[in-house]
Amino acid sequence: MRKKTTRWGSDRTSGISRGDKNYLSQWGFSFIEILFTLVISSILLGLAFPIFNSLIVGLRLFILTERMNSTLDYAQNEAIRRQNVITLCKSKDGQTCSGTWREGWIVFVNHSTTSFQNKELLHVYPALSGNEFLEWHGFRSDDYLQLYPDGSMSQNGSFIVCIHSLSKKMVWLIQISQTGRKRIDKENAQERDCN
């Protein structure tokens, strides 16, 4: 009977028998080889982690900015579609204008021009995670933004969108004009503080 061979012409275990004391050392890894592999892997992971962290922070900042941008688009479209004033404000409880922007925000139809009591709630946005920040800085002292049926807004201002992660902080601005135009500013945002 003929011995089974590999395509190179010899069987894999030629010259090695179970009784040979070098059998295990020829098929396993030594402690030094495993240690060397772990050291090299640790160095590579240490070099890659800051890059990976920056990528994750940038992606989260993009998602949060787009979330706020889509809120503004939604409110503006509803104002035009309903031919009514739509209000966007921060909301801690999801019902009233209160708290901070980090705790969530609401969009509602404002049926009264003097108060927010007679309102139709359109959308409630949940609170942000622990290291995400959102603030509104308007040119008036109002802590809310109203969108009108012609597409314009009640005031100029900007939303500061910020993500903190370890030692990295990234900030973008969503700048809003009274005419209803929005622009994302990445260059001038870095000197802004967000806490």
Q: Would you kindly provide a written description of the structure presented here, covering whatever features stand out?
A:
With about 200 residues, this protein is an alpha+beta fold. The protein has a single domain (about 30-185), classed as 3-Layer(bab) Sandwich (minor pseudopilin epsh fold). Helix content is about 30%, strand content about 25%. It has helices spanning about 25, 30-80; strands spanning about 85-90, 105-110, 120-125, 130-140, 145, 155-165, 170-175, 180-185. The strands form two sheets. It has a four-stranded antiparallel beta sheet with strand order 3-2-1-5. The longest helix has about 50 residues, at about 30-80. The chain is elongated. The mean pLDDT is about 85.
